[in-house]
TrEMBL record:
Protein name: Membrane metalloprotease
Top-level division of the source organism's lineage: Bacteria
């Protein structure tokens, strides 16, 4: 039986430093929401996401543009991945809602940041940590005919999935189905929120790819990447299913309270 292998690009953005304005969302006497805890650098909330020392539940807000809702199977596979890696005794909530198109595609990561500012409603509160995921109706501006960015983790609790790109790629002959690509992208990008690899979570052993910052050098790992076409971060998914984290990455997560 022939096994097909396809190359998919997972992109993680550099840290964004945002200045506070007069309407900066610090908690005040009027009970306004403190958003600052969710506007930090990528990987800085890794331990909070993984263990239950501060937050005992996880609230994931998925906002998808009309016509770009992720598959139920993809979300279920993503939930299974989270349950296998984190301790949240009060549970994991994944809430989906639709939004109108921004009309900004193809997107820069700065434009995604602006969309988050307009669309995000869930932030950390009490013992619940919140994550925002946007399923976009367009591609990343850096895409070419040979390179496709499927997802970007860009802050401590923020990420974007380029759902339209995923759908187009899934329709190609020999490609894995859409749910598999969605789940693999979600798992990979959320692992960047976990601080992998060396993005806020200190490696227990040296397994970061020296040629690809933030990715694992171990063959077959979910966080494995290689540079192709001169730029881009490439992760290989094959027809056998979604890659899993290798032992070195799991040890990193366990070192800060993960499973």
């Amino acid at each position: 039986m022939i096994r097909f292998k396809k190359l998919f690009i997972f992109f993680f953005a550099a840290t964004f430093i945002l200045s506070c304005s007069k309407d900066s969302p610090n908690r005040s006497g009027d009970g306004s929401i403190d958003r600052t805890a969710n506007l930090k650098s990528l990987g800085s909330s890794a331990s909070d996401l993984l263990n239950d020392a501060t937050f005992t539940s996880l609230n994931i807000e998925i906002v998808y543009v009309e016509g770009n809702r992720p598959t139920e199977e993809g979300i279920n596979l993503f939930r299974n991945f989270l349950q296998s890696r984190i301790y949240k005794p009060d549970g994991i909530k994944i809430n989906l809602r639709s939004a109108n198109s921004s009309g900004k595609a193809p997107f820069t990561i700065e434009e995604i940041v602006d969309i988050e500012k307009e669309e995000r409603t869930s932030y950390n509160v009490g013992d619940e940590i919140a994550v925002w995921i946007y399923f976009a109706d367009g591609s990343n501006e850096k895409d070419t005919n040979e390179k496709f960015v499927l997802g970007s983790a860009f802050r401590n609790t923020s990420m974007v999935i380029y759902e339209r790109t995923i759908r187009e790629f899934a329709n190609r002959t020999g490609a894995p189905n859409r749910a598999t690509i969605e789940a693999a992208t979600l798992n990979h990008e959320f692992s960047h929120l976990f601080g992998l690899v060396n993005l806020g979570t200190t490696p227990v052993t040296d397994h970061e790819d020296p040629e690809n910052d933030g990715h694992c050098i171990v063959d077959g790992c979910l966080m494995r990447s290689s540079i192709e076409f001169g730029s881009g971060v490439v992760n290989i998914i094959d027809g056998s299913g979604i890659p899993t984290l290798d032992d070195a990455c799991i040890q990193d997560l366990q070192s800060i309270g993960g499973r």
